[in-house]
């Protein structure tokens, strides 16, 4: 049986390479290509996708948000997340989003095809070394709300913009940021953002 695959990757050259690699496999058919996270759900629905191969860093909705949306609205579609950053915290976020597979972009071509086959068959496909690293790492000490505030701050928004976006008062945002800096033992907000990004928490 041929596996119907959607590829979501915003870099044209990378997307072209992924599609070309997958089309070499006799049991895999690429039925849709998109460059933006906002397009994934509609494309998966119209192309009757079975496996969505999704870059974690997409414009619009990021890969994990899109994967969560697929899981909620098209639960029959399996998701395989691709990332260039093999951080344990990123893997934890992916697993929390109920993705079916997690693979580094620099993995060998046959590993990609095998991961697609694995998730299509209902297995969870995760790079072994990365899974072990994630097992050994400390859980993120931040609450989901604190992560939201820090992520918005990391996008370059000031306190007023973060407050408006998160439906909070500016005082609450400042309190959250103070707590975040303290929890991460950071020197300041910029250092807190660095720590969270390096840990794969945002």
UniProtKB/TrEMBL annotation:
InterPro entries registered for this protein in UniProt: CheY-like_superfamily, Sig_transdc_resp-reg_C-effctor, Sig_transdc_resp-reg_receiver, Tscrpt_reg_LuxR_C, WalR-like
Keywords on record: DNA-binding, Phosphoprotein
UniProt-listed Pfam families: GerE, Response_reg
Gene Ontology molecular-function annotations: DNA binding
HTH luxR-type domain: residues covered: 134-200
Tagged with keyword Cell wall biogenesis/degradation: no
Position of the signal peptide: none
Residues bearing the modification 4-aspartylphosphate: 55
Highest taxon, organism lineage: Bacteria
Keyword Phosphoprotein carried by entry: yes
Residues covered by the Response regulatory domain: 4-120
Protein name, per record: DNA-binding response regulator
């Amino acid at each position: 049986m041929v596996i119907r695959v959607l590829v979501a990757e915003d870099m044209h050259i990378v997307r072209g390479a992924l599609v070309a690699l997958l089309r070499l496999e006799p049991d895999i058919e690429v039925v849709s290509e998109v460059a933006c996270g906002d397009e994934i759900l509609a494309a998966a629905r119209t192309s009757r996708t079975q496996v969505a191969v999704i870059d974690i860093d997409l414009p619009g909705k990021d890969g994990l948000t899109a994967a969560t949306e697929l899981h909620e609205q098209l639960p029959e579609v399996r998701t395989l997340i691709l990332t260039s950053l093999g951080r344990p915290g990123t893997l934890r976020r992916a697993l929390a989003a109920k993705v079916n597979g997690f693979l580094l972009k620099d993995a060998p071509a046959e590993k990609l095809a095998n991961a697609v086959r694995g998730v299509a068959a209902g297995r969870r496909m995760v790079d072994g070394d990365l899974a072990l690293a994630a097992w050994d790492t400390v859980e993120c000490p931040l609450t989901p709300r604190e992560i939201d505030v820090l992520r918005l701050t990391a996008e370059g928004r000031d306190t007023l913009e973060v407050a408006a976006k998160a439906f909070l008062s500016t005082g609450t945002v400042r309190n959250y940021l103070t707590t975040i800096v303290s929890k991460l033992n950071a020197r300041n907000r910029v250092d807190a953002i660095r720590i969270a990004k390096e840990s794969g928490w945002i």
